[in-house]
Amino acid sequence: MGFAGYAAIFDVPDRAGDVVRRGAFAAAGRVPLLWQHRGVPVGEIAAIGEDACGLRVRGTITALELAGLVRAGALTGLSIGYRPRRVRQGTYRELIELDLIEVSLVAQPMQRAARILETLEETSE
């Protein structure tokens, strides 16, 4: 089952007080799709890139139980695992440059708007 959405949103503080800035994912390459930031991959990320809103992803979920939850609208959260390369500390910790490690399906994303926005029958566009 395919999906598309945002794994991170720019310029919006998350629940921990981090703010991702435009350009933070400039070096993002291929990463795995995990469940809750753990374990073996539960699918794959087919396309990843920044747009005006954030880090847009498109992928496929191969874990049948998770695919069913996403299809039913019961699981919509996305999140990122990363290593900060450049940060700026102010009122919030601004994430300027990141090494993206993985994208995860999550029950509760740190960024409330980091969500699956649509389900797709196939992920090729």
From TrEMBL:
InterPro entries: Peptidase_S78_dom, Prohead_protease. It comes from the Bacteria. GO terms for molecular function: peptidase activity. Residues 3-117 form the Prohead serine protease domain. Coiled coil: none annotated. Keywords: Hydrolase, Protease, Viral release from host cell. The keyword ATP-binding does not apply. GO terms for biological process: proteolysis. NCBIfam families: proheadase_HK97. This is HK97 family phage prohead protease. It comes from Sphingomonas baiyangensis.
